[in-house]
């Protein structure tokens, strides 16, 4: 039925535009639809600046990923970067499986969240909702990378449209914000602590750009297009987050915003509009986030198999679609098991820490490569200050989780 061959490469069919939307969809996910209220509970009136601070911190990691992906456009990029820098197969293997773990657990958590939104429209039992979503994601991911990325792009456009609607509906009120800031509490230790705590939460809303490097072998001219796509996706997400935060603050009383589990839906209700549209957009945002994780995790498995750090059969590609079918089936099976049988919340918190460990290793790998003065004239190159600062900030974020 499926003609498999380990010698068949992945199909290079992703343009800069498609990979940018893939990254943007992964970054946006469903997070902003619930996260802005949580950040507001910490940062208060300074919530937009908490998002900007988080963006500034995340930017250092984005730069490291952009340079490394341009130097080494490989699937299972993180594992390859670490192997190239440290020549430790065991460390490379651990990093690769950590990335896979973050993908499947994140997708499982997202899939669990899918049920509540889906049942607003069709009253199916939880297990049926989960099974339906996992089957759909698996089919799309196997269908083809261009088709998958195109689907992600369409959904991402709808996500962005939802955020733009929020911003547009609040554009009159946004002009009143300077007066609110004038009345706000002046900067103090407590205020700065709140902004920092809000930025810590907001930081995770920027995670997703790292997934882009794992489709590098399916991108046209990745040395040039991948870094640009990373920065475009990151920049667009930053602008949207900042403007949405402004829209929320200008329209909703801070206590209501901070207490809301669905702040964008609450916003629509306060504006006299139905929240069903935003509910639907939130639903497809969840699908988008989960699909992106399926694509990422399967490509990491494929890349590790090619590098000899995972079972070779995971590197087999379906001849017709040139997609890693076996790796994809393994990924969706694990997601289904986790989503049906486990409490995902605790695992999701662990994955956040794992991501920070991966980030630290990526920064360290780039520092070592730069110290060795390895030069690639085709690759993007940035100051060594970026991975150094990125390593320090990732470490501080990791430590703060235990304080």
UniProtKB/TrEMBL annotation:
| GO MF term set | amino acid transmembrane transporter activity
Q: What is this protein called?
A: Amino acid transporter
Q: Name one GO cellular component term.
A: membrane
Topology with regard to the membrane? Answer: Multi-pass membrane protein
According to its UniProt record, where is this protein located?
A: Membrane
User: Which keywords belong to this entry?
Assistant: Membrane, Transmembrane, Transmembrane helix, Transport
Q: Which residue spans traverse the membrane?
A: 17-36, 48-68, 89-110, 122-143, 150-171, 191-209, 230-256, 276-302, 323-344, 350-367, 379-402
Species: Legionella impletisoli
Among Pfam families, the record links this protein to: AA_permease_2
Q: Does the keyword DNA damage apply?
A: no
Q: Does the keyword Plastid apply?
A: no
């Amino acid at each position: 039925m499926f003609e498999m061959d380990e010698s068949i490469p992945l199909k290079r069919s992703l343009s800069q535009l498609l990979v940018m939307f893939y990254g943007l969809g992964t970054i946006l996910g469903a997070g902003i639809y619930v996260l802005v209220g949580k950040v507001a509970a910490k940062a208060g009136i300074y919530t937009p600046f908490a998002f900007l601070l988080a963006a500034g911190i995340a930017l250092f990691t984005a730069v490291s990923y952009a340079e490394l992906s341009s130097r080494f456009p490989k699937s299972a990029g993180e594992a390859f970067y670490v192997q190239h820098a440290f020549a430790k197969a065991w460390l490379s293997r651990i990093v690769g499986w950590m990335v896979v773990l973050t993908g499947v657990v994140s997708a499982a958590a997202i899939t669990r969240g899918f049920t509540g939104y889906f049942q607003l429209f069709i009253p199916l039992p939880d297990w049926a909702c989960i099974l339906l979503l996992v089957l759909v994601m698996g089919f799309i991911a196997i269908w083809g990378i261009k088709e998958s990325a195109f689907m992600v792009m369409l959904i991402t456009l709808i996500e962005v449209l939802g955020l733009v609607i929020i911003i547009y509906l609040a554009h009159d009120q946004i002009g009143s914000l300077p007066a609110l800031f004038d009345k706000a509490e002046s900067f103090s230790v407590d205020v700065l602590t709140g902004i920092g705590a809000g930025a810590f939460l907001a930081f995770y809303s920027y995670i997703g750009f790292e997934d882009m490097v794992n489709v590098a072998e399916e991108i046209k001219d990745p040395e040039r297009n991948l870094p640009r796509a990373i920065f475009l996706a990151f920049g667009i997400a930053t602008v949207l987050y900042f403007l949405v935060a402004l829209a929320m603050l200008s329209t909703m009383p801070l206590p209501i915003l901070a207490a809301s589990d669905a702040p964008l839906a609450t916003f629509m209700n306060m504006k006299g509009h139905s929240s069903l549209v935003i509910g639907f957009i939130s639903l497809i945002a969840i699908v988008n986030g989960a699909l992106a994780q399926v694509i990422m995790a399967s490509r990491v498995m494929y890349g590790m198999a090619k590098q000899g750090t995972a079972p070779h059969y995971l590197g087999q590609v379906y001849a017709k679609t040139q997609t890693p079918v076996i790796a994809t089936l393994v990924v969706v099976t694990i997601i289904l098991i986790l989503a049906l049988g486990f409490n995902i919340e605790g695992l999701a918190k662990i994955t956040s820490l794992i991501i920070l460990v991966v980030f630290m290793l990526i920064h360290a790998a780039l520092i070592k490569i730069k110290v060795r003065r390895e030069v690639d004239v085709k690759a993007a190159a940035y100051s060594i200050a970026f991975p150094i600062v990125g390593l320090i900030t990732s470490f501080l974020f990791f430590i703060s989780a235990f304080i």
